[in-house]
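> call design_seq(struct)
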């Protein structure tokens, strides 16, 4: 660390532009973020939105209610899976039945820092993003700080668990990663936007038969967490916690404000978005995620029986890890672009992935400024309250530009279907690093 500091002091420009300095910049930013979160908690008034409702929903469970349709708060019925209930039950008791808001804010500030460390660890492993970009990802985002420490939403909890799962995937701990992924889904269903990418990776890594045990891990955890409620009212639990057809209120939408409300609520519009989402996933799976010249159905085969497309790469190889992250982040981003509605707290669904999505493609010196500008416009759109025709259109334009860059700026790398278990870097990985 001392040597890295000395090099950064002598080469400040390199410390801002070269990804190898990410650990140093990340450490400095995490320290700064501790102070920023403390300042926000002490100086900016807390805003009650969902915390009280969360505590009321949990209190119903504490009082013995196991029929999910009977669990509700001031903002309506409980619409999250069972993992949410258990995690917020812990917060319920830790904060004196939800009454100690200040303590809850400090706990969420700790969650913010943990989430940031997990995100930085992913960026350190992929070695793609210049460190100066992380200043925009941290201290510059008012909305993200608000979601964590001023609103106490459950979205950050789900995303922190998800980033922990991704770290486990990068370490080749796929079973543990699937367990944590399923836990994140049990907190909030938006994590399923990463599921198509994860399924693709599991098939690529293990083949059809090999990925079935991993999928069973995901399913069994959902059953175990929901069992007390499934035994009482299984239909009620499934329809409430995994309601894919839930209608959203037009007044809260960030991304579709430019549409008439009758179009926003129209089922044909919802079906069109679903079709666009599935089409986007199919195109990316066929032409951007699939790395072999063989038919994509070869992913169903045992990896040992596939014809290798190129020299094998180790699990420590930076290209393999970057590709895992690209597939997961782009899978989620496609879902965000096609969402029926985005509310303000949903910004955390993809905020920390934006630097990777923007800088994972080759970037010339002149291209840095437009990418930073895109980050700024997206931040401005999410900080416009209430949303306007201009802000929602601008958000879609930014999303469209990122999608175009991902499509035209990326191509499947020459990775093998199944990286070996050896952890010693190959000559190829050394060259990549």
């Amino acid at each position: 660390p001392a040597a890295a500091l000395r090099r950064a002091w002598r080469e400040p420009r390199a410390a801002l532009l070269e990804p190898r300095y990410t650990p140093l910049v990340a450490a400095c930013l995490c320290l700064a973020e501790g102070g920023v979160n403390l300042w926000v908690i002490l100086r900016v008034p807390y805003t009650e939105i969902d915390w009280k409702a969360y505590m009321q929903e949990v209190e119903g469970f504490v009082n013995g209610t196991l029929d999910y349709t009977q669990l509700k708060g001031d903002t309506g019925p409980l619409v999250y899976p069972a993992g949410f209930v258990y995690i917020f039950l812990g917060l319920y008791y830790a904060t004196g039945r939800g009454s100690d808001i200040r303590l809850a804010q400090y706990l969420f500030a700790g969650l913010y820092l943990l989430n940031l460390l997990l995100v930085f660890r992913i960026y350190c492993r992929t070695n793609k993003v210049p460190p100066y970009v992380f200043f925009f990802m941290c201290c510059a985002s008012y909305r993200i700080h608000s979601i964590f420490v001023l609103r106490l939403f459950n979205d950050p909890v789900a995303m922190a668990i998800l980033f922990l799962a991704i770290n486990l995937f990068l370490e080749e701990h796929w079973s543990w990663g699937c367990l944590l992924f399923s836990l994140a889904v049990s907190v909030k269903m938006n994590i399923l936007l990463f599921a198509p990418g994860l399924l693709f990776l599991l098939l690529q890594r293990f083949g059809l038969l090999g990925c079935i045990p991993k999928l069973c891990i995901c399913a069994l955890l959902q059953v175990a967490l929901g069992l007390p409620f499934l035994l009482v009212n299984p239909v009620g639990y499934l329809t409430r916690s995994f309601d894919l057809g839930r209608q959203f209120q037009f007044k809260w939408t960030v991304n579709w404000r430019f549409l008439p409300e009758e179009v926003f609520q129209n089922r044909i519009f919802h079906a069109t978005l679903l079709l666009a989402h599935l089409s986007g996933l199919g195109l990316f799976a066929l032409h951007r995620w699939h790395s072999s010249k063989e038919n994509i159905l070869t992913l169903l085969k045992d990896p040992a029986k596939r014809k290798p497309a190129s020299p094998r790469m180790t699990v420590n190889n930076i290209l393999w890890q970057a590709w895992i992250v690209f597939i997961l982040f782009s899978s989620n981003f496609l879902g965000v672009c096609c969402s029926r509605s985005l509310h303000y707290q949903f910004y955390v669904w993809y905020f920390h992935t934006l630097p990777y999505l923007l800088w994972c493609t080759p970037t010339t010196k002149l291209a840095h400024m437009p990418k930073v500008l895109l980050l700024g416009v997206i931040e401005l759109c999410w900080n416009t309250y209430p949303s306007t025709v201009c802000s929602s259109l601008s958000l879609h334009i930014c999303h469209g530009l990122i999608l175009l860059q991902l499509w035209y700026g990326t191509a499947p790398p020459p990775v093998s279907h199944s990286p070996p278990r050896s952890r010693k870097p190959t000559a190829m990985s050394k060259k990549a690093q």
